[in-house]
Prior knowledge:
Elements: H1 2-38
Amino acid sequence: MQENHRTRKELKKLEIEKSTIIKSLKIQKNGWMTIISMD
Length: 39
């Protein structure tokens, strides 16, 4: 039971990390566009 709970927590953490990475990649892409425009 305890192990299962931990696994679920880990999965949720991974999901959050994945969405954070996707968000930061989108921001990075927009950032590069801004940098290129400013140059």
